[in-house]
Write a structure and sequence with these properties.
two-stranded antiparallel sheet; 77 residues; two-stranded antiparallel ribbon; alpha+beta
Amino acid sequence: MAKFKKNLNPQVFLEISIDGRPAKRITFELFADVVPKTAENFRALCTGEKGLGESTKKPLYFKGTHIHRIIPGFMAQ
């Protein structure tokens, strides 16, 4: 019998709205086992926990970010 590795990678989500109306939730698995720094940076941008940028003083989060295209099962741009 094959043994399967339990998935320990974190998951995050973004709530998407279209023209101000709630649309869908996009869930991402972050491959922390492969790219730990990138996964942690993306996770922090989802939570907004890093506050403001040092030099820009702008919020470090995805809230309010515009997405112009979503390809299901592949990517959001």
